[in-house]
Amino acid sequence: MSEPTRKAGFKAFDEEFFAASAIDWRHGLGQRKFSARELLDAVWERILQRNPAINALAAYDFEAAMRAAAVADARFDRGEARALEGLPITVKDSFETQGLTTSCGAMELADHRPRSDALAVARLRAAGAIVLAKSNVPRLTGDFQTYSELYGVSANPFDLSRSPGGSSGGAAASAASGFCAFELASDLGGSIRWPAHACGLFGLKTSWGQIPLFGHIPPLPAMRLKNPPDLAVAGPLARSSGDLDLVLSVAAGPLNAQGPAFLRKARKTRPEDLRLALWLEPGFAPVDAAVAYGVLMAAEALRKAGARVDVAARPAFSFREAFEIYAFLNFAIGFAGTPAEAREEIAACGKFFDADDPSYPAMQARAARLDAAVFSRMMERRTAIDKAFAAFFAEYDAILCPPAPCAAIRHDFTPDFFARRLETSAGALPYYDLLKWASLASLARLPAAVAPVGRDASGLPCGVQILCAFDEDRSAVAIAALLEKELGGFCAPPSP
């Protein structure tokens, strides 16, 4: 795959431009302030200059992107431009892309060149988006940081000594660095929300099933599933709240949809009409003081704008119980494709733990021997949590809570995940605590948006997570938009 010769950048494409939204880029294209080819060249020049230090991207296809840009320019000339016409995007390397290597960070997939796009990718292309590159992921999306044998370590553009998060870390670093108009990513345990928080972006974990995951890895291509795995969703990472809605409107819809999806309108769009709950739980799910401050700042901004904010309201279930169910399912899903011998070895470790041991190694061991009876009881408990959320959202429009326990972490490649720690003002927390605040929306299949709210004392971004009722994705985006208006939204990382 050839790369273009380096050329001088376009004066029109300055730092402010690369921090602008996909909507702004699309407007510029539509006004013919620049052509799709000029935009592509400018983005590619930026990648050539900055990606070597950040390493956000994996496989490229500049030649195919040039051909697509020519098609886009012709469509603009004919007055036939589509919703995403001419926008160069990067796609998380867990989504299959026709003719472009899709390895999902796994050595055994280093030569995997799919014959067709994942369905969500196909929908973006059909709307005119230009797939320029794939963004780096940890092996088979299995980490909260982003590094692999194939493509190395991705760095956070706000601080190269830190991770952009994972598993959509390359995706977040790409979007924050202006390497794309937006990113298509995926989330099972916070893989959109944690990187959005760590890189100061807007992210949307969609309602389960809202955007098809067909063509996503995992599962491995040989294990292709018609229905999406439990908990997992697709969604966008972007530099504005409006971009989240733009991507959602194109990519959403059932597997066999023949036209635009029906998306429920935002329940409320005026702050004075909102009733919100603020959820911090320092006993069970402590967070760094800067993260807590960011959530409180978001709540206060919306309160000053007219929203009612309740600091005591909670759905009628135990966070600890919800997380236990989620952690079991998360570990169990992780065992898919694991050789029986390896799973039995982990299950055998259960004899070293008490039956109610809440530690992560103990929960993993119990999940490895999960049987039908235990699973059935767990689903009954999960249904009760779904009902509690439904009752809660009959009275409240959203929950504001942390996206993660801390801001972006320093690179940590300790082989034993259980030995890794998150350094916070609340003390050193287990690495898997990164799942806690992500678990609530994932377990109940709810939409959750992340909006940037500012930076901590060291300049690292912080965000707030916005949970809404099932199928109320646009409500979450609308509240993110209100916060964008009140707090300023995305701020670009410092220039290298």
Give an account of the 3D structure.
It is a single chain. 36% of the residues lie in helices and 14% in strands. The protein is globular and about 65 Å long. It is built from 15 helices and 15 strands. The longest helix is centred in the C-terminal third of the chain and has 22 residues, at 372-393. β14 (448-455) and β15 form a beta hairpin. α8 packs antiparallel against α15 and α11 packs across α12 (360-368). It is α/β, with parallel strands linked by helices. It has helices spanning 15-18, 22-30, 36-54, 62-78, 119-126, 169-177, 193-199, 241-251, 289-304, 319-334, 340-348, 360-368, 372-393, 436-443, 473-487, and strands at residues 57-60, 88-92, 130-135, 147-148, 152-153, 183-187, 202-205, 233-238, 275-278, 308-310, 398-401, 421-424, 427-430, 448-455, 461-467. It folds into 2 domains: 15-251, Amidase signature (AS) enzymes (Alpha-Beta Complex); 271-320 and 374-487, Amidase signature (AS) domain (Amidase signature (AS) enzymes).
At the fold tier of CATH, the topology name of the largest domain is: Amidase signature (AS) enzymes
The end-to-end span amounts to 28 Å
What pattern of helices and strands is seen along the backbone? HHHEHEHEEEHEHEEHEHEHHHHEEEHEEH
- What is the averaged pLDDT score? 94
What is the CATH architecture term of the largest domain?
A: Alpha-Beta Complex
What shape does the CA trace take? globular
CATH superfamily placement of the largest domain: Amidase signature (AS) domain
Number of domains: 2
The count of DSSP E runs of length 2 or more, i.e. the number of strands, is 15
| Alpha carbon gyration radius | 21 Å
Number of helices: 15
Biggest sheet layout: 11 strands, mixed
Given as residue ranges, the uncertain stretches (5+ residues, pLDDT < 50) are 1-10
Q: Name the structural class.
A: alpha/beta
Strand proportion: 5-15%
Work out the helicity level. Answer: 25-40%
CATH class of the largest domain: Alpha Beta
Give me the side-by-side strand order of the main sheet. 1-3-2-6-8-7-14-15-11-9-10
